[in-house]
Amino acid sequence: MSGDILSQNEIDALLSALSTGEMSAEEMKREEEAQRVKVYDFKRALRFSKDQIRSLTRIHENFARLLTTYFSAQLRTYVQIEVASVDQIPFEEFIRSIPNMTLINIFEVSPLEGNILMEVNPNIAYSMLDRLMGGAGESPSKVDTLTEIETKIMMNLFERSFDNLREAWSGLIDIDPYLAEMEVNPQFLQMISPNETVVVISFNIVIGESSGMINICIPHVVLEPVVPNLSVQYWMQTNKKEPTPEQSAALKGRVKKAQLPIIAELGTGQMSIEEFLQLEKGDVLSLKQKIDEPLVVKIGDLPKFMAQPGHLKNWMAVQVIDVLTEGDEDDE
């Protein structure tokens, strides 16, 4: 039986079948055991858990936002990019899913071993090229091989775009992407074994009036060293980054210049509300403090020093004679 909740009518029908002998308990048991068996395709081995796929999705959603800003500035037009899907499939299936003539950027991501691919739909690639060459961003219906000059222009565009991937991956690992080569025919790619599991991140991209897909293909062998870092526990632990030495020094300098109120307390006393309401100019208040006892000096609301009152030139002053430690947070 499936994992769905049965309605009352379905339950009554099952009980009726058991009571009339149309179905025996043994048959139901065998049927349930038979349905527990699931077909497993070894060519589509799932190497990543759902938790790890979610982490990769979050990373590349951030990459999509950064890429949107980058392409909008470079192409000087409206660009919108968002993650459409994140799947793990055999490399052979990915190759079959992309057009015979397309734009494939092959990147090295040191210190990780292996390469990752960025496949750009021809409609989007030619629209980008048209914008870079001063056009309106139109895409030709016929896809031709890029000239040497066009190839160089596109390589420069995508090589700089991977600075955004470096930033998006910074919470996972510091990488140094490098554009190794550009291909237009996926059949020439002999990067990994056809049955090797890859993660394919598909982006929907809109450039002006043109739209299409960009796919990033990451082999399992590339991600294998950082797979433990894709867990939720790792992201929660590394959510707060340690400040750099320069940031720590700047923060320390600002803290040292912060202004703090200093209060030299002459003493305390008590009076009733009636006495308070009758106070007039010239009245003398009695404090619970002897004239020869040191004063308490407070920093903010915390007592920190003992001091004796006096004068410094034309200013009233106190001289610190002792340091109090009971107000320190370290002693709590």
TrEMBL record:
Annotated keywords: Bacterial flagellum, Cell membrane, Cell projection, Chemotaxis, Cilium, Flagellar rotation, Flagellum, Membrane
Pfam family, one: FliMN_C
Name under which the protein is recorded: Flagellar motor switch protein FliM
Species annotation: Sporosarcina pasteurii (Bacillus pasteurii)
Topology within the bilayer: Peripheral membrane protein
SUPFAM superfamilies cross-referenced by the UniProt entry: CheC-like, Surface presentation of antigens (SPOA)
Residues annotated as domain Flagellar motor switch protein FliN-like C-terminal: 255-324
Gene Ontology terms: biological process: bacterial-type flagellum-dependent swarming motility; positive chemotaxis
GO MF term set: cytoskeletal motor activity
Family the UniProt entry places it in: Belongs to the FliM family.
Entries under InterPro entries matching the protein: CheC-like_sf, Flag_FliM, FliN-like_C, SpoA-like_sf
Entry GO terms, CC: bacterial-type flagellum basal body; plasma membrane
Keyword hit for Transport: no
CDD domains referenced in this protein's UniProt entry, alphabetically: FliM (cd17908)
Subcellular localization, as worded in the UniProt entry: Bacterial flagellum basal body; Cell membrane
